[in-house]
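Reading a protein record of the kind used here takes only a little practice. Think of the row as the fold of the chain written in a discrete alphabet. A record is reproduced here so that you can trace the correspondence yourselves:
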Amino acid sequence: MLIRFLPGNQRFFRLFSQHAELGVQGCRELLLLLTHLSTERELRAQNVEAAEKAADRITRQTIELLKRTPVAPLHPDAIHKLVSVMDDVLDLAEDTAQTIYLYDIKRVTPAAIQLAEICVACAERLEEAVGLLVSRRNRDGILRLCEQIDKLESDADHVMRAAMSRLFRDEPDTRELIKLKAVYELLEQITDKAEDVANIIEGLVLERSWRG
């Protein structure tokens, strides 16, 4: 079947990859924001926002292309769901960056940085998995990456639970506690959404409608 070689269908895969690349960029900028709070907070928050806005444009382009494509390489509902949930990852990254900036958070814990590192790892594996969707020959590699993302999300859960326990036990300033709690929760939600994307990808490669 030559469906994947049609010009419009090749463009779907390029758009998926561009979106995933922006996901990596946004999560890396978020990590840099957390590790350079005193010197680069505004710059890094702006960079995360820029990545999110660029991804929004790609999401709209993908949906418009879907409307014009009679035979897509994936089921239309799957394409819409995939790009929408990928967009959720960057939405949450932007929410996290804006929370840090608007709450004027001046310090974060090692746990917050560890969670951000896990977010980056999830985004990198999503980028790799999305890039492999172009061919059925990549099925096993895609599934391995999805398993890795699932493991990373579990790691994030463990990090957040331990961080929350320390926060409520050791933080005397109620305002700081509220701020850090919000950051922990948003970072963990990024990994949740990354796992959601991985689950969508996993479902795609396991069903017969995948025409890659």
Summary: The domain at 3-206 is CATH 1.20.58.220 (Methane Monooxygenase Hydroxylase; Chain G, domain 1). The chain is about 85% helix and 0% strand. The radius of gyration is 18 Å. The chain has one domain: 3-206.
